[in-house]
From TrEMBL:
Keywords: Signal. The keyword Signal applies. PROSITE patterns: RHODANESE_3. InterPro entries: Rhodanese-like_dom, Rhodanese-like_dom_sf. Residues 49-166 form the Rhodanese domain. This is Rhodanese-like domain-containing protein. It holds the Pfam family Rhodanese. It comes from the Bacteria. Residues 1-19 form the signal peptide. The keyword Signal applies.
Length: 194
């Protein structure tokens, strides 16, 4: 019994080293599961857990095509996507995005193929942590129990002041110098089933 308690305590201690302080998470990035990582923590957790954690880039196909993506992600499955005839969204200042109805089923297919299920660790990343938090909530509703969101995302947050105000230079995967590439691995990409 003492041996099991020591193993559990050690595991909890090691795992808690990867927990971003939830008190620092803006409301828009908060999730039902309250499991957060910054980009460096996400990289370290994926490195540590390897195939026991599934890392998903939830940005649109256009974003990853032109901005690149982390090299260690297992898959790119857009949580939202621009429909072919997307109207302009005045409120958000961009073309309208629709939730990808295949997001949950595609993740389930890929995780099953990787020998993983709903009780395994899932790490989600988007541009800045907003969409990944919504995708995490959907997965929690679908019964996933360990869904982490990368709160600073791939590009990071906007600088509020200074000469780079309005640019995504504050934090995030790229700004942390973590491995990423413009060259995409086709096997990791999502192809809609029309």
């Amino acid at each position: 019994m003492k041996k099991w308690m020591a193993v559990l305590l050690l595991g909890a201690t090691c795992f808690s080293a990867f927990a971003f302080d939830a008190a620092q998470v803006p409301d828009i990035k908060q999730t039902k599961a309250a499991l957060y990582l910054d980009a460096k923590e996400a990289y370290a957790l994926k490195q540590k857990m390897a195939d026991k954690a599934y890392f998903v880039d939830v940005r649109t196909r256009g974003e990853i095509s032109y901005v690149g993506m982390p090299t260690i992600v297992d898959a790119s499955i857009p949580y939202v996507e621009h429909p072919d005839d997307a109207p302009w969204d005045d409120k958000n200042g961009r073309f309208k995005l629709d939730v990808n109805s295949d997001f949950g089923p595609e993740l389930a297919r890929r995780m099953t193929a990787a020998g993983l299920g709903k009780n395994d660790t899932v790490i989600l990343i988007c541009r800045s942590g907003d969409r990944s938090s919504r995708a995490a909530n959907l997965l929690t509703d679908l019964g996933y129990t360990k869904v982490y969101t990368v709160v600073d995302g791939f590009e990071g947050d906007l600088a509020k002041t200074g000469p780079q105000a309005g640019r995504r230079v504050v934090n995030g995967w790229k700004n942390a110098g973590l491995p990423w590439s413009y060259k995409l691995d086709k096997s990791k990409l999502y192809f809609p089933k029309y």
